[in-house]
Amino acid sequence: MSAFAKIQYFPSMPLRFLTFLKSTRRQPHTLMLEVDKRMTKHEIKEYLTKVYDLPPPHKVNTAVFKGKWRRIAGKREVVTFRHNDWKKAFVMWKRFPGEGEGLASK
């Protein structure tokens, strides 16, 4: 390895799979993930291509959701607390990897 080689460092960035939507006429293939709030769109895209060896996505959208308030009533007191905020990433491909393979390729 040369001294000028690029080193990719990915700290522990948890990604949690939420759901996958197949494409329709209006909407491309969409993968929904729960990601760390500090991750940017570019980091999500790079993380999926480098770590999971997926082709680069067509588009990445993100949304931040505020944590909900909860109340738990006990015998002596009522405890209120708030869940943590979280970020949801929508990763879209025009053509999902592996699509079109199968019977047609044999």
UniProtKB/TrEMBL annotation:
GO cellular component, as recorded: mitochondrial large ribosomal subunit
UniProt-listed InterPro entries: Nucleotide-bd_a/b_plait_sf, Ribosomal_uL23-like, Ribosomal_uL23/eL15/eS24_sf
Keyword field: Ribonucleoprotein, Ribosomal protein
Keyword Ribonucleoprotein on entry: yes
Protein name: Large ribosomal subunit protein uL23m
Source organism, top-level taxon: Eukaryota
UniProt record similarity statement: Belongs to the universal ribosomal protein uL23 family.
An annotated Gene Ontology molecular function: structural constituent of ribosome
Cross-referenced Gene3D superfamilies: 3.30.70.330
Organism, scientific name: Triparma laevis f. longispina
Gene Ontology BP annotations: mitochondrial translation
